[in-house]
């Protein structure tokens, strides 16, 4: 597993090594006096993140089709496992619904006092999900309908379900670039993914 990363007092993140190309990231965020584990893949980083930040409060699943290890971690820690849609839950975050469709239910989270934005898949940072040259990209399936409302936020920390966290001006610039280039770079993305598929990279 990857070492914990987190520039400040309220977030820790890690990336699961398998499969490497997906860069499945898990996050722990201190909010409302407790530690919330968000879309976590399991590993020793879970307990390490909680130990650094405080007392576990719950496990949040922001994307319906990606349970990851949420249920097992919640049971082990003795905390609730809350699943998307989260807009009716009592949480110390602002819940930002992304897609609530029969085939795709996704929420994002905004912690305004620390300007932390957590996104499951509407924005992705793993290189194989992004177009060439992008640090952050809109998910391939959302390129024609990018999540423009996220561009109105000015996060100091961007946590994504795929890829490493970004901070400060780099996070804001990457979001702006991703949203403005979503449709225009779709052909580049599809071409790059076709090349990766031929080379057997998606394994």
Quick overview:
The chain has helices at 44-53, 70-77, 168-181, 186-198, and strands at 11-15, 25-31, 34-38, 56-61, 81-83, 94-101, 104-111, 116-119, 123-124, 137-138, 157-160, 166-167.
List keywords for this structure.
5-stranded mixed β-sheet; single chain; alpha/beta; 203 residues
Task: Describe the protein's architecture and organization.
By secondary structure, this protein is of the alpha/beta class. About 20% of the residues lie in helices and about 30% in strands. The protein has a 5-stranded mixed sheet. It has a 5-stranded mixed sheet with strand order 6-7-8-11-12, with helices on one face. β7 (about 105-110) and β8 form a beta hairpin. The model has no long low-confidence stretch (mean pLDDT about 95).
Radius of gyration: 16 Å
What is the share of helical residues? 10-25%
Give the helix/strand class: alpha/beta
- What is the number of helices? 4
Q: Quick one: biggest sheet?
A: 5 strands, mixed
Q: What proportion strand? A: 25-35%
Number of strand elements: 12
Give the overall shape: globular
Identify the strand order in the major beta sheet. Answer: 1-2-3-4-5
Distance between the termini: 18 Å
Average pLDDT number = 94
H/E series, N to C? EEEHEHEEEEEEEEHH
Q: Regions with pLDDT < 50 over 5+ consecutive residues?
A: none
Task: Summarize the SSE layout with pairings.
Layout: E1 11-15, E2 25-31, E3 34-38, H1 44-53, E4 56-61, H2 70-77, E5 81-83, E6 94-101, E7 104-111, E8 116-119, E9 123-124, E10 137-138, E11 157-160, E12 166-167, H3 168-181, H4 186-198
Parallel strand pairs: 3-4, 4-5, 8-11
Antiparallel strand pairs: 1-2, 2-3, 6-7, 7-8, 9-10, 11-12
């Amino acid at each position: 597993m990857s070492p914990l990363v987190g520039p400040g007092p309220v977030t820790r993140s890690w990336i699961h090594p398998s499969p490497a190309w997906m860069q499945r990231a898990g996050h722990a965020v201190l909010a409302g006096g407790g530690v919330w584990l968000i879309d976590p893949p399991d590993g020793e980083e879970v307990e390490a993140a909680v130990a650094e930040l405080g007392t576990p409060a719950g496990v949040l699943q922001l994307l319906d089709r990606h349970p990851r290890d949420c249920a097992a971690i919640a049971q082990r820690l003795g905390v609730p496992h809350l699943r998307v849609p989260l807009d009716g839950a009592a949480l110390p975050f602002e819940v930002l619904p992304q897609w609530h469709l029969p085939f795709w239910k996704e929420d994002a989270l905004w912690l305004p006092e620390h300007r932390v934005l957590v996104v499951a898949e509407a924005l992705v940072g793993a290189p194989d999900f992004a177009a060439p040259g992008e640090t952050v990209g809109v998910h391939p399936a959302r390129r024609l309908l990018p999540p423009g409302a996220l561009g109105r936020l000015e996060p100091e920390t961007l946590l994504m379900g795929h890829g490493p966290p970004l901070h400060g001006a780099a996070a804001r610039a990457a979001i702006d670039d991703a949203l403005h280039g979503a449709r225009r770079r779709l052909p580049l993305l599809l071409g790059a993914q076709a090349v990766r598929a031929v080379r057997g990279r998606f394994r």
